[in-house]
Design brief:
Strand content: over 45%
Number of strands: 11
Helix content: under 10%
Order of helices and strands: EEEEEEEEEHEE
Radius of gyration: 13 Å
Largest sheet: 7 strands, mixed
Shape: globular
Distance between the termini: 37 Å
Length: about 120
C-alpha cells in the first residue's frame, strides 16, 4: 500500500488549496481513504473520509462546508479541496486507509496505513 500526500503550502486566510493523495498497491474503488491533520500542541483530527465502494463522504464539524473530498479512480488519487481556509487549519495533513467505517473517522481515527504528510500553513 502506498499513499503520498502533496499540495500543501502557504496561503492567506480565506484562500484555497487542493491536496492530493496518490495511492498505489490496491484497488482504490474498493477502499476508504481518510484525511487527518496534526498541528503542534493539538490532537490528531480526522477531518474527512470517503468510502469509494459505498459512495459516501463524511466531514468533521471543523471543516464541513469548506472542504470537499473526491476521488479520481482513473488517476488513483483522492483530493481534498480546501476553501475559506483559516489560521486554525494550519497543520500537517495526512491521508490514510481507515480501519473503521467513515462515519467514525472523526471520533476514533483508526487506520492501517498512512503516507508522508504535507504542510499547510494559513497565515497573512
Amino acid at each position: 500500500v502506498q499513499l503520498q500526500a502533496s499540495g500543501g503550502g502557504l496561503v492567506q486566510p480565506g484562500g484555497s488549496l487542493r491536496l492530493s493523495c496518490i495511492t498505489g498497491g490496491f484497488i482504490l474503488e474498493y477502499y476508504k481513504i481518510g484525511w487527518f491533520r496534526e498541528a503542534p500542541g493539538k490532537e490528531r483530527e480526522g477531518i474527512s473520509c470517503i468510502d469509494n465502494d459505498a459512495g459516501s463522504t463524511t466531514y468533521s464539524d471543523s471543516v464541513k462546508g469548506r472542504f470537499t473530498i473526491t476521488t479520481d479512480i482513473a488517476e488513483n488519487t483522492v483530493y481534498l479541496q480546501m476553501n475559506s481556509l483559516k489560521p486554525e487549519d494550519t497543520a500537517v495533513y495526512y491521508c490514510a486507509t481507515p480501519s473503521i467505517p467513515c462515519e467514525f473517522w472523526n471520533r476514533d481515527l483508526e487506520y492501517d496505513n498512512w503516507g508522508q504528510g504535507t504542510q499547510v500553513t494559513v497565515s497573512s
